[in-house]
Write a structure and sequence with these properties.
CATH class: Mainly Alpha
Protein name: ABC transporter permease
Radius of gyration: 22 Å
Helix content: over 70%
Strand content: under 5%
GO cellular component, one term: plasma membrane
Number of strands: 4
Largest sheet: 2 strands, antiparallel
Number of helices: 15
Structural class: mainly alpha
GO molecular function: transmembrane transporter activity
Distance between the termini: 11 Å
InterPro entries: ABC_transp_permease
Shape: globular
Membrane topology: Multi-pass membrane protein
Length: about 350
């Protein structure tokens, strides 16, 4: 062992093992919560409860995927919960009221058109976030905090704070079937889970095998170097915020479809779960590092933790405390992993020398 390695105070083998454990922390946490709640709650692993949890996990995973791309570029999106609420209200409004053209004629849309319009609203809000950050140089935290309030206020204004109920549609208007998105099943699994699989596979492919994916990591790793090397940094940032808005719109659609009602408070604090899942899944808050697969596992941990605490009768107040602690611990472990990685790299260089 070289002098440089001895000065580190840690043997290379033990450091490598510890680093491996840190990298696998999300899987370890997933196994831990599964074992704990399966022992603490007898019905936890029942088929009905597993299907219900999968629906909850899907909602969190959609938001966490969008948040992952944003955080990898060194940003943050606090507006996703409010986008969920606004998009839910947009969908509910279109089902119930259509669009009044103010000429004595009202346009009603079928369900695919309602879904498309709602997704475009989410993408538009994401684009506004991107423009604020790239063109007006507003810090991501402030820009998305502002749109958080604007989107939530718009959701409340759309119905004066009331719920849009009974979104079954009208056969004469051709807008029935909205409930299938949130309550339907294909081969025994909820539609939302199949949608998650499709979007997750697409996002994972984009991040690993496309030029855009490499540029997303480059921007987060070193924005100045990425810009010098020809990466269109502003367009990359625009994309990640638009993708985040797109994912939030999907969640708004699924929730309003499942409940067959839209409420302006839908999605409150959802951004916390999204951030927690992304960070727990290995996404670095300093940017440049993260993976969709890890984020999905992180979403499972957060979803199982939330549902398990509810089944144990833990109050919602303590649930917020626990989720906050999860975020803090995940960030602390991430920082420790970065330092240990640097230490192991130095050890390997010293050994090679």
């Amino acid at each position: 062992m070289s002098d440089a390695t001895v000065q580190m105070g840690v043997a290379p083998s033990s450091s490598s093992v510890l680093l491996t454990l840190m990298k696998a922390r999300t899987f370890i946490a997933l196994i831990a919560v599964l074992v704990f709640f399966s022992l603490a709650v007898p019905s936890f692993l029942s088929t009905a409860n597993l299907i219900l949890m999968s629906k909850h996990v899907a909602l969190n995973a959609f938001l966490a995927m969008g948040m992952t791309f944003v955080i990898i570029t060194g940003g943050i999106d606090l507006s996703v919960g409010s986008i969920v609420g606004l998009c839910a209200m947009v969908a509910g409004y279109l089902v119930l009221n259509g669009i009044d053209l103010q000429i004595g004629y009202t346009v009603y849309f079928n369900v695919p058109e309602i879904i498309l319009i709602t997704l475009l609203v989410g993408i538009l809000i994401g684009a506004i976030n991107g423009l604020l950050i790239t063109r007006l140089n507003v810090a991501p935290f402030i820009a998305t905090l502002g749109t958080l309030y604007v989107a939530r206020g718009a959701a409340l204004l759309s119905s004066d704070g009331r719920t849009f109920p009974n979104l079954v549609g009208n056969p004469d208007l051709g807008n029935t079937g909205f409930g299938h998105l949130g309550a339907g099943r294909i081969l025994g699994l909820p539609v939302s889970v199949w949608l998650l699989i499709v979007v997750a596979l697409g996002a994972a492919y984009l991040s690993k095998y496309t030029t855009l994916g490499r540029h997303i990591y480059a921007v987060g790793g070193n924005e100045r170097a990425a810009r010098i090397s020809g990466v269109r940094v502003n367009l990359v940032k625009m994309f990640v915020y638009m993708f985040s808005g797109f994912c939030a719109a999907i969640v708004g659609l699924i929730i309003s479809s499942e409940l067959m009602a839209s409420h302006p408070a839908t999605g409150e604090t959802f951004e916390l779960n999204a951030i927690a899942a992304a960070v727990l899944g290995g996404t670095s808050m300093s940017g440049g590092r993260g993976a969709i697969g890890g984020t999905i596992v992180g979403a499972f941990v957060i979803g199982i933790l939330s549902d398990g605490l509810v089944m144990m009768g833990v109050s919602s107040f303590w649930q917020m405390v626990i989720k906050g602690l999860v975020i803090i611990v995940a960030v602390v472990v991430d920082q420790a992993q970065r330092k240990l990685q640097q230490r192991v790299t130095l050890m390997q260089m010293a050994k090679a020398g």
